[in-house]
């Protein structure tokens, strides 16, 4: 809970705060055993290696994978690049004639740019539209796969701006029936929705530590072992991580990632219920104070902590942010925050540029209290009224 004079943090899609239990688990690996986990010739190195492998098991358990199917990376951006470029380049190197790479217009930029980059290497990028609720129509995917042989499909599990949850089971089944690989960016899904690669035919899945109350700078790529998925590494080095991701593994970060995954797995239902309560509390207060406020994205198929809200009256979200003081919300993806153009995700679901420019992303998390929700709603309503008054004055 934030004290009255402390910031209220509601930007949990950009990053989550480090859980104190995660910090406690990490501390000894900085202060007491700082050994390289690849230095297995001595006791400290072997202890660090054992801690890394325990973290690998914890991350794997979160998604129903085997530990040996987890490749540690610096984050989900690297994992997405490795999955998409690595799969395409390996297949091409083996003489696979397929060049079609299919994804969705509302994906994270690192996925969109990875697919575009492959276009310069002779692959055929395909970007599918979404419905007005932000979800991919399975029939649209099926039709796209029927047009030409496809190598890989990438669909984000949970959208980082509007919070909608794609039907991975249905989409993955369509992709596998077409003989293509299926990748999902699950950075926003892990710890928030059930994920089970044993039940859903997902070949590649990207994860991030700092989206599940773990440390920044660490992530993972799940790579299915049976049937085996093969990738070309992005860069050369010492051959760590089964030769797919060379470089010294950061033991403290991985221990933290593992502990965050363990907590997320054991407390997901508790977190989800609590967060849903704060979301509904905040939304009810906001609707009462701001007539005509609108939530974007499917109202049911969404993660509990997400509210992507368009404010009425032609106000500017930037003008509201300038009046929000110590309330931390955003206009969209953190990686796009320097851009001044309206969100491409909001455009993809049919919002006008004016409406997109009047939209804020609110991310409620594990540590959001009822008092935080109440205070945030009041601050948002006040900021909207002030911005609306200014807008009207300027028009007169």
From TrEMBL:
Residue ranges of domain Aminotransferase class V in the record: 8-375
Keywords, A to Z, come to: 2Fe-2S, Aminotransferase, Iron, Iron-sulfur, Metal-binding, Pyridoxal phosphate, Transferase
Q: Which cofactor does it need?
A: pyridoxal 5'-phosphate
Name of protein: Cysteine desulfurase
Recorded GO cellular component terms are: cytosol
The job of this chain, per UniProt, is described as: Catalyzes the removal of elemental sulfur atoms from cysteine to produce alanine. Seems to participate in the biosynthesis of the nitrogenase metalloclusters by providing the inorganic sulfur required for the Fe-S core formation.
From the UniProt record, which GO molecular function terms apply? 2 iron, 2 sulfur cluster binding; cysteine desulfurase activity; metal ion binding; transaminase activity
Q: Which organism is it from?
A: Teichococcus coralli
GO BP term, example: iron-sulfur cluster assembly
Q: Which Pfam families match?
A: Aminotran_5
Taxonomy, superkingdom: Bacteria
> Which EC number(s) does UniProt give?
2.8.1.7
Q: Respond yes or no to whether keyword Iron is given for this record.
A: yes
Q: What reactions does this protein catalyze?
A: (sulfur carrier)-H + L-cysteine = (sulfur carrier)-SH + L-alanine
The record, for InterPro entries, names: Aminotrans_V_dom (IPR000192), Aminotrans_V_PyrdxlP_BS (IPR020578), Cysteine_dSase (IPR016454), PyrdxlP-dep_Trfase (IPR015424), PyrdxlP-dep_Trfase_major (IPR015421), PyrdxlP-dep_Trfase_small (IPR015422)
Family named by the database record: Belongs to the class-V pyridoxal-phosphate-dependent aminotransferase family. NifS/IscS subfamily.
């Amino acid at each position: 809970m934030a004290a009255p004079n402390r910031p209220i943090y509601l930007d949990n899609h950009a990053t989550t705060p480090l859980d104190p239990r995660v910090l406690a688990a990490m501390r000894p690996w900085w202060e007491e055993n700082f050994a390289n986990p690849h230095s297995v010739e001595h006791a400290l190195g072997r202890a660090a290696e054992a801690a890394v492998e325990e973290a690998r098991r914890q991350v794997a358990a979160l998604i129903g994978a085997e530990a040996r199917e987890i490749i540690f990376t610096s984050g989900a951006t690297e994992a997405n690049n490795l999955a998409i470029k690595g799969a395409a380049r390996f297949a091409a190197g083996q003489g696979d004639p397929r060049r079609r790479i299919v994804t969705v217009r509302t994906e994270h930029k690192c996925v969109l740019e990875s697919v575009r980059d492959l276009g310069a290497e002779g692959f055929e990028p395909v970007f599918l539209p979404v419905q007005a609720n932000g979800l991919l129509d399975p029939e649209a995917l099926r039709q796209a796969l029927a047009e030409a042989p496809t190598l890989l499909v990438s669909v984000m599990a949970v959208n980082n701006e509007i919070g909608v949850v794609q039907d991975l089971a249905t989409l993955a089944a369509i992709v596998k029936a077409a003989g293509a690989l299926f990748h999902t960016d699950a950075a926003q899904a892990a710890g928030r929705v059930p994920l089970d690669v044993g039940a859903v035919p997902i070949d590649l899945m990207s994860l991030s530590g700092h989206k599940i109350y773990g440390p920044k700078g660490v992530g993972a790529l799940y790579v299915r072992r049976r049937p085996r998925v093969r990738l070309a590494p992005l860069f050369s080095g010492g051959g760590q991580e089964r030769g797919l991701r060379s470089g010294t593994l950061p033991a403290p970060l991985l221990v933290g990632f593992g502990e965050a995954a363990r907590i997320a797995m054991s407390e997901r239902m508790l977190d989800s219920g609590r967060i849903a309560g704060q979301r509904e509390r905040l939304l009810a207060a906001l609707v009462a104070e701001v007539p005509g406020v609108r939530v974007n994205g499917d109202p049911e198929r969404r993660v509990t902590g997400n509210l992507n809200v368009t404010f009425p009256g032609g106000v500017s979200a930037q003008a509201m942010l300038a009046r929000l003081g110590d309330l931390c919300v955003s206009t969209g993806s953190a990686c796009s925050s320097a851009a001044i153009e309206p969100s491409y995700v909001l455009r993809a679901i049919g919002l006008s540029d004016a409406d997109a420019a009047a939209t804020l992303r609110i991310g409620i998390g594990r540590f959001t209290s009822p008092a935080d929700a109440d205070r945030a709603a009041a601050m948002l309503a006040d900021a909207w009224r002030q911005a609306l008054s200014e807008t009207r004055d300027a028009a007169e």
